[in-house]
């Protein structure tokens, strides 16, 4: 009985050892190969992007926008044309093709596009020629796309934006025109693993159309309403002339939008004073007081937000400074001597 048990143990041990030996000699299971990942080399990112890396249809664009247009849109097309050039050196030659630069060559300097063969005894010095071993397309990665200000945005994928050789793509840029006027220069800086460059944007915003002159009947209605309640110009239909598009405007632009409709009208209503020929002495404080509070019993409304008007304190200060500069102050007349 003991002999049978011993034989069974020996057989089991042999099976275990055989299985372990099989595991030791078996081939490992084939792993799932992952796609190679392109890792940008950023050592050239702070350098100017050389020619021959990204070919752009344009690097500067101009857009003309109408007054009141919400956004200006730009589209730049580009292609990755970068090539990896591998160079090598050769010495002691007598037949030369496909060269780029010759150094230490005695009477030679630079070959330029011609084939030289059977060169005999050029110099006693060793001749070294740099030749092109290979040229192959290369991947380029855009690391960042940085607009010049917060009102400018670029539509781009997640960074880094990897561009395989020959990639054609588009870069879309949008500029928020809210409160903007005149000519606006902007730019977008493109930083790649081969260097950085700027795309330049220029927006030309058309001036606002002049307000439609009021008919005598409309003027009479407006005057009657203002005599009852001088803040009426900021309500109803009157607000379309006196309180429209004032947000984000300052100084001269604010004067054109809020004040000129009455004070620079042609013809100007007789009850509206000519600001260039006031009899009272003026100053920046004078203008700020009148703009903020207006004058009770007249058609001049209070423009300050604290008094129900549409303008902030900052807008009023900018308007007062503009008026004080553009309309020479009238000095206080000297007191008559007794």
Largest sheet features: 5 strands, mixed
CATH architecture of the largest domain: Orthogonal Bundle
**Count of DSSP H/I helices:** 7
Q: Give the CATH topology of the largest domain.
A: Cytochrome Bc1 Complex, Chain D, domain 2
Dominant shape: elongated
Order of helices and strands: HEEEEEEEEEEEEEEHHHHHH
**Estimated radius of gyration:** 40 Å
Question: Terminal Cα separation, in Å?
Answer: 151 Å
How many domains is the backbone divided into?
Answer: 3
- Beta content comes to 25-35%
CATH class of the largest domain: Mainly Alpha
Percent of residues in helices comes to 10-25%
Mean pLDDT: 77
Strand order of the largest sheet: 2-14-13-9-11
Model regions low in confidence, pLDDT < 50 over at least 5 residues? 102-125
Number of strands: 14
Structural class: alpha+beta
How would you portray this structure in words?
This protein has 338 residues and is an alpha+beta fold. The protein folds into 3 domains: 54-82 and 139-205, Immunoglobulin-like (Sandwich), CATH 2.60.40.10; 83-137, no CATH class; 216-326, Cytochrome Bc1 Complex, Chain D, domain 2, CATH 1.10.760. Helices cover 23% and strands 28% of the residues. The chain is built from 7 helices and 14 strands. It has a 5-stranded mixed beta sheet, with no helix packed on it. A 4-stranded antiparallel beta sheet has the order 1-3-12-10, with no helix packed on it. Helix 4 crosses helix 7 and helix 6 (284-293) crosses helix 7.
